[in-house]
Amino acid sequence: MGGCPHSTGSHLANRHRLLHSTAGLILAHLLGASPPAAANVGLVAAVVLPMIYAWSAGRAAHLRGRQLLIITAIAAALGLLMIILKDVVLIHLH
Question: What DSSP character marks residue 31?
Fold first, then answer.
């Protein structure tokens, strides 16, 4: 079969993250949020979910205190960077 032994797990994790972001977006819309507000819920989920995963991974690696805070902050920064890059590509380059 070949390939990376973790590729299936990584693929499933990405699908799981997308499902949570999409579910938040749909739920906000169903609860009567305007499309921009529902989109903001999706953006918040895109930042918060990686933070939760980083926190969980840090706890599993027995990190505590400052180390745990740092990896969680890095995950938040990457989520925000993703949003900024999407903004640049979708708004400024199109």
Answer: T
**How many structural domains comprise the chain?**
1
Of residues 66 and 44, more confidence is placed in 66
**Concatenated DSSP letters of 33-49:** --HHHHHHHHHHHHHHH
pTM for the full predicted model: 0.63
CA angle 89, 51, 6 (to 5 degrees): 85
The range of the structural domain enclosing residue 84 comes to 7-92
If pLDDT is split at 50, 70 and 90, which confidence band does 2 have? very low
Assess if residue 45 is contained within a domain. Answer: yes
